[in-house]
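tl;dr need the bound structure. longer version: we got a ligand (zinc ion) that a collaborator sent over and nobodys looked at where it sits. i said id run it. heres the input, straight from their email, havent touched it
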Amino acid sequence: MNTKRLIFIGVMLVIIGVGVRFLSPELSAPLQQTDKPMVAVSTFTLYEASSVITGDTLNIFPIVPLGSDAHMFSPTPVQVAKISNAVFFIYNGAGFETWAKSIENTLPKTVKVIDMSGHVTLLREQDDGAYDPHYWLDIDNMITMTQTLENEFSKRFPQNAKLYHSNAIAYIAKLQRLKSDYTAGLKECKNRTLISNHDAFGYLAHANNLQNVSIIGLSSDEQPSAKIIAEVIARVKEHGITTIFFEEMINDNVAQTIARETGAKAQPLQPLENISEDELKSHQTYESIMRANLAKLTQAMECR
Ligand SMILES: [Zn+2]
């Protein structure tokens, strides 16, 4: 084969290589960050707690893209390949990620899999007994998640155990202050009924002795029946409820309709299933978002 031809083929290969790196960021990103062990996590709360505990010692990879509806997500083959290169695959469980179990069975033994729902206190739905997966909204569960993550990371990387412990302790102290502000803020309220779009706030309501009413079920893709809509409208009128809460990353048409019908206000409440690009850019955290939620709740429920 003559030299000219060889040079031509060589140049073509370089061009293709560069093209792949820039055209598919998923393919390019891992290459740069693989010097640190990777931890693949499914939800924002697992992402934040893992990042806070480990500082910059590990590469925490959020599987569900920012701003997307976590209920509707399913991973691409590239993302699944990335998870199989991780040292941990940590997911929420309790039915939140329909895809997690199928991935779990395909992963190499080098990936330690943690289903966090096995470590926290779960609530079941009254009607069908299904587990409610939104357990991170009970601050006690968020503390347990942090302790579980600290233990797992310290076992795997004992050289960092001291750092992980002091980071976890500082984070838990913040969560405990947040919890006492919730307890104080929601202690005396004119009405204690929380009406939301999808059934994401059961744990928050249970932890703070509130009545939890949702228009659609546990998952964002369910459609409410006319009967349920009528019941919610009647309840709003009967109890003089001033606010219907909806989630910004999820379809809120029905919540808006009920608000119009009843004269109540429709207001976003963040269930922290995921956060948006803007929220990340403005350095929003579990604590700051939960505090914003608390301010909205105390106002809507006329708490003293
Ligand atoms: Zn949800």
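gonna send this back to them w/ a short note. The first strand starts at residue 38 and ends at 41.
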